[in-house]
Write a structure and sequence with these properties.
alpha+beta; 306 residues; binds magnesium ion; binds adenosine-5'-triphosphate; 8-stranded antiparallel sheet
Amino acid sequence: MEHFDYRHHRHHQRAFDEAPEALRRRVFGVDYLRLRGKQSGELFVTRHGWPVLESILPSQWFVGERLSKVGRALAGATGAVYRVSVPHKTRPQFALVVKFSRFAQEALVSVVPGEITDWEERDRIAASEFLSPFEELGNLERLRARAGSRIPTKAPLAIYCPATRYLDWQLGRRSHRRWWYDRVLREDQESMPEANRVRYEWERMYILLYRWIDGMDAEAAYQHGYLTEAGLRSLTTDARDELRALGWDVLDHKPRHVIVRASREPSRLQQRGGRTLWALVDYELLVPYPPPPAAPAPAVGEQGHA
Ligand SMILES: Nc1ncnc2c1ncn2[C@@H]1O[C@H](COP(=O)(O)OP(=O)(O)OP(=O)(O)O)[C@@H](O)[C@H]1O
Ligand SMILES: [Mg+2]
């Protein structure tokens, strides 16, 4: 278990924007305060995470064994995702989503047969890669700024990078993809003062912390009779269209990523503005829409020249 001695620092009671310069990081447009743990793990705390710092410190939820015992692995996940209840001063129901980033791993994104007939889109999905933790939060914050309360999302609280080192094969990362992630981050960090730059620690894990939102996924809502099969299909399509209209797309969009809430009336879902209220919960493949035009293939004979 790693301790972050934030109590000993005077800054812990300060507002996010008043924290000392040395703690500040800005990555892909998102501001963080970076705290270093006693074992040299790093906790990048967002503006949303700062007021609940005591609840998100790794000692509250990351004790190896305890994460899996106290936390509930979320059904339907293909990665490692947990719901973990943590103590909070005033909210007894406060819980986190703890999600292990899969960046640089092979993204085996499945397309439901017959669902996507557009070949360009199929190619795009086949070539997709999981976002790095900082890109994921960057895209999510851009979506949140655009969507406001129309599309609720989990508030991003922090990124935790524990000090433990692993070999590449233990983390499942493809070494040959590192340069690409490194380059994108380096370009983003170029304008930052040297001491405040962030770079990836390829031998370490990255864990994303979000605030839990209540509800059930659309597939569960269908199974429990809140939606008909046609209703499930149209909610899923409407969700995709609404996201796209706001300039965003989730490459592996599916009913399990759409969260709805039961209303007080039996068998009904909560509505808002004449439509079923839905929230989006998975951002590891959240990308701008429409996609940027693909780079033209090099002309014959050009390959291999720098
Ligand atoms: N706030 C929530 N309320 C209800 N269910 C949730 C919530 N957050 C996540 N889930 C459930 O947990 C599942 C796994 O979460 P998530 O999609 O983030 O994991 P994943 O490993 O990326 O899965 P996938 O590979 O299917 O994208 C979701 O598909 C959904 O069913
Ligand atoms: Mg996912």
